[in-house]
Amino acid sequence: MRMDNPSIFQAKSLHTFLVLAEELHFGRAAKRLHISQPPLSQQIQRLEAAVGTALFVRDTRNVQLSPAGRVLQNWLLQQQLEEENLLRRLRQADGLAHVRLGFSSSVAYKLLPRLIGQLPSALRLSLEESHSRLLIEHVRQEKVDVALLRKPAEAIGKDLRFTLIEREALCVALHPSHALVSCAQISVEQLNGEDFIDYQPDQATYFRERVHGLFTHFHVYPNMIDHSTLPTILSLVMANRGIALVPECARALFSEQVIFRPLLQQHEKTMVELYCVRRQSNAQLAVLQVEQMALDVCQR
Predict the structure, then answer these.
(1) Half-sphere exposure of 192 (CA within 13 A, CB side)
(2) How distant, in Å, are the alpha carbons of 41, 144, 180, 216, 237 from that of 194?
(3) Where is the HTH lysR-type domain (predicted)?
(4) pTM for the complete prediction?
(5) Is residue 169 pLDDT above 60, yes or no?
(6) Tell me: the pLDDT tens digits for 231-265?
(7) Fewer CB atoms < 10 Å away: N or C end of the chain?
(8) Which residue segments constitute the domains of the chain, with CATH numbers given?
(9) Which helix (H) or strand (E) is 146 found in, with range?
(10) What single DSSP character describes residue 243?
């Protein structure tokens, strides 16, 4: 790898590289970076031209890191970790505790503002929003200290501590003109054959698992017409594209434009769970404080 040109280490291009290295998908990476795919591809091509070798192996269906790409990713992650450890020591020297808090999107609707409002002023918080699977990896890689998220079925690891902090019911989100609005409660069976907004398999794994498990259990087959993530799903409901199953906390969004109805069945399949996750080895007082405060806020 040719490193004679120091300009290749510009923060923007390296950040773009790291995001694509995590997602291994140009569409998802572009979405995280808030750019379209052509500028993303151009940035990666310029970086590869600068270092003199391919960083990714691409074909029509897959994107993978090349051997050189893995070397660069490992080096950058190590640099980030060293910088974050330095910043933490500097802040601790000033008497300020610093916690890097990750959260999935649904946490922002209700829990996150309440939690932030309860934190002491001596605690400095850095926030990262992402989907649960990536947040779990960031906790494991020590890029995040603690995260509030939905736990996908495959999320395991003796190195991580998952603490259940809240259980809430799924409810039906409806356009005000939908016939089911007249029902005070809606049975799962009433969703059979309805146009339904599903969850994305890669960005909303947990909710997709829960919703599909619920339909399978009750032998219900809605007409899946779209898939997305919250809050876009509620935007599609508001546009009268279909109905959706969403957690109760989503009532805080579009409360006037979308009608929410509880499910008639009270069953474990109709419930969703929220977890706090940290590394087992991370026993910093500030991290434990955030974990306990999240639990306390949810139990009030």
Answers:
(1) 9
(2) 39, 40, 10, 15, 12
(3) 9-66
(4) 0.68
(5) yes
(6) 899 999 999 999 999 999 998 877 778 999 999 99
(7) C
(8) 6-75 (1.10.10.10), 96-300 (3.40.190.290)
(9) strand 146-149
(10) B
